[in-house]
Design goal:
The chain is mainly alpha-helical. It contains three helices and two strands. The chain has a two-stranded antiparallel sheet. The relative contact order is 0.09.
C-alpha cells in the first residue's frame, strides 16, 4: 500500500486537485506529516493478520455504546427538575 512518501510536487498536485492551495512552507510541513502516516501504515502492513476475521468495532459488539436504551420512570420526578434554571409547574422552560 503506502510504499513511498509523496514528494512536494505530488503533494501540490494532490492539494490543488482538492482545491487546497498550499504555500511552500505548508507543503513542507504536510510532507513531513504524510511521511509519519505512511511510515505508520507500513508498520501496520507488517502485522500478521492471517486467520483473523475483520471487525467493525475495536470492542465486542455486545457491549458498545450503540446499545438500545429502554425508557424508565424516575422514582422521584421532582429531583429531575431540581437544578433546572427555568421552571413552570412540572415543566422546564427556556425563558
Amino acid at each position: 500500500m503506502a510504499k513511498h512518501d509523496l514528494n512536494l510536487n505530488e503533494l501540490k498536485q494532490l492539494s490543488e486537485s482538492l482545491y487546497f492551495h498550499l504555500g511552500e512552507d505548508q507543503l513542507k510541513r504536510l510532507k513531513i506529516e504524510f511521511s509519519y502516516i505512511t511510515h505508520y501504515i507500513n508498520l501496520l502492513n507488517k502485522v500478521k493478520t492471517d486467520g483473523l476475521a475483520p471487525t467493525n468495532f475495536i470492542q465486542s459488539t455486545t457491549d458498545h455504546q450503540l446499545r438500545l436504551d429502554f425508557p424508565n420512570t424516575a422514582d422521584h420526578p421532582e429531583e429531575l427538575f431540581q437544578n433546572a434554571k427555568n421552571k413552570q409547574g412540572k415543566f422546564i422552560t427556556t425563558k
